[in-house]
Structures are given as C-alpha cells and as structure tokens.
Write a structure and sequence with these properties.
- The chain is mainly alpha-helical.
- It is about 55% helix and about 10% strand.
- Helix 1 crosses helix 2 and helix 1 crosses helix 4.
- The N and C termini lie far apart (about 30 Å).
C-alpha cells in the first residue's frame, strides 16, 4: 500500500513509530509545533501534521499499516 493519508499524528503514534518515551515524544511534538507557529501556521497541541513530521525525518515513509502497528505497540506497552 501507499503512503498514509492521515493528516495528523498524535504523540502516542509518534511514540509507537520512534520507540521513544512518551515524555520525549511530547517534547518533540512541542518543538515541531513551535517551529510551525514561527512559520505562522495553526497548530493543534499534542498533534503534528503528518507531512511536516515526515519532512523533518528525512527519508521516512509512513503507511497506514505502519501506523496501525505503532498504535498496537503503544497499546501493548511495547515502547519505553
């Protein structure tokens, strides 16, 4: 399948994708949202636009299947 069409990523989804702690992912989302605000963009606390996230993590491709697996990892507490 192709790249996801999901517009925003939550902290939990990012946590599942990166395998990082929840607190680190909150910091990461806040940093990305600060950057967006400086570009005069509207932000949603706790979420980051998928396209912007992928631009910042160069070379990363994200499919719906990858997102589903990331959600499972967080739900099953298989991340830090």
């Amino acid at each position: 399948m192709g790249i996801t069409r999901q517009m925003f990523l939550s902290v939990a989804e990012i946590q599942g994708l990166l395998g990082m702690s929840k607190s680190y992912c909150y910091e990461l989302v806040a940093k990305l949202n600060d950057e967006l605000e400086k570009m005069d963009k509207i932000v949603i606390p706790g979420k980051v636009p998928t396209q912007f996230f992928l631009e910042k993590f160069y070379g990363m491709e994200l499919t719906d299947e990858m997102l589903e697996e990331a959600r499972k990892r967080v739900t099953e507490k298989r991340v830090v």
